[in-house]
Amino acid sequence: MSFSTTPAVLVLEDGRTFHGSAYGHIGETTGEAVFVTAMSGYQETLTDPSYHRQIIIQAAPHIGNTGVNRTDDESAQIWAAGYVVRDASRISSNWRSEGDLADWLTESGIVGISDVDTRALTRHLRDKGAMRVGIFSGPAAEAPGSELLARVQASPQMAGANLVDEVSITEPRLIPARGEKRFSVAAVDLGIKSMTPERLSERGIDVHLLPSTISFEEIRALGVDGVFFSNGPGDPATADDQVELLRAVLDARIPFFGICFGNQLLGRALGFGTYKLPFGHRGINVPVMDRTTEKVEITSQNHGFAVDAPLTGETTAPHKADYGRVTVSHVCLNDDVVEGLACLDIPAFSVQFHPEAAAGPHDSSYLFDRFVDLMSASQADSAAQA
User: Fold this and answer.
1) Closest Cα partner for 152 from 20, 8, 28, 13?
2) How far apart (Å, rounded) are the C-alpha atoms in residues 296 and 331?
3) Which of 18, 124, 175, 233 is at a distance of 20 to 30 A from 219, taking alpha carbons?
4) 3-state percent helix, strand, coil for the chain, nearest multiple of 5
């Protein structure tokens, strides 16, 4: 790649400004500023649909050294609104590399900035909280600072943003089971990553990947053994249609498993609230305790919202429907955020983190087996009642 010396500027909505060099496409972009603590997996991060309308700040200082390849993409495109790094690698060297990160950003129209003190930027966001940000490079960076700040402050907020329909597929498709088929699952795409259906498929599951607008009647017609809700972007408080769909699934006692956004929607379906975290959890090194086993797992996470549920003991689901007892199954050891929900009287559970974790770690992959066990138990109960 040719190393850029084009000036660029990053402007936060509170007025703090960082100067650097253009990285990727020349132009301007705005979004929510979020920092990622992962030291690897930048390609998987950029192609995660959960980062839609967010500008990613890489806390790790050296980015791009292993290049990019099409195999590691988590979706068909880069979803991040912009990209911020400290030291952009001048060369990429890896036996799997098919191209350079900076060239890929340019080809994809992603505006980025390098030579920024990302440690100072991350510490600022940890102190002040997530906020809107703009990156301006080339001619756009020459505008007065007051004008750039006004553009940032006029951009949309993440709170109240309904984004799942923007990232979901529009037509159903089937990912067939590997080997002998054991179950079939309806996976509702709210911003799903490509590795998730693979983790289900390798366990003998036919995965019906479905749009976010799918109806319960259409799911019922598929005759599936379970329903899965994926990760996704935006504010879970706006996803009323998907919450009503999930309540229909729970009412029918179809086994359910949700991750990330799906965890937040299970919380809402059960009658709990959700809230925006100060700066979220984003990285592949977040410690979580599974209260079922009392083991601590290092998890992959990407979320700015969380479920507001009691951390200790059993709670009766607040919703008027009879969903019975619920417990918080997983908790973050950094800040006591709810990281999982387990229903004790209906076949449903969820986690806030990403057990598929294409870029690692793989501590939590057992959760897909737990979903298989839930479907097996449901089938056994149905046979016993027949």
Assistant:
1) 13
2) 10
3) 233
4) 25, 35, 40
**Where in the sequence numbering do the catalytic residues fall?**
260, 354, 356
Burial class (CB in 10 A: 0-12, 13-18, 19+), 144: exposed
Residue in the structure block whose two tokens are 């009323």: 240
CA 352 to chain centre: 9
Q: Where are the beta strands (DSSP E) in 309-386?
A: 314-316, 325-332, 338-343, 348-351
pTM check: above 0.90: yes
DSSP assignment of 298-325: EEEEEEEEEEE--SSSEEE--SSS---E
The reply to whether omega before 318 is within 30° of 0 (cis) is: no
Spatial contact of 75 and 193, defined as CB atoms under 8 Å apart: yes
Phi, psi angles (nearest 5°) of residue 227: -125, 140
Give me the half-sphere count of Cα atoms (radius 13 Å) on the Cβ side of residue 330. Answer: 27
On the CB side of 329, CA atoms within 13 Å amount to 19
306-343 pLDDT, tens digit each: 999 999 999 999 998 899 999 999 999 999 999 999 99
CA distance 38 to 47: 15
- The Cα–Cα gap between 386 and 380 comes to 10
Cβ 381 vs Cβ 368: under 8 Å:
no
d(CA 322, CA 250): 10
For residue 246, list its beta bridge partners: none
DSSP string, 219-230: HHHHT-SEEEE-
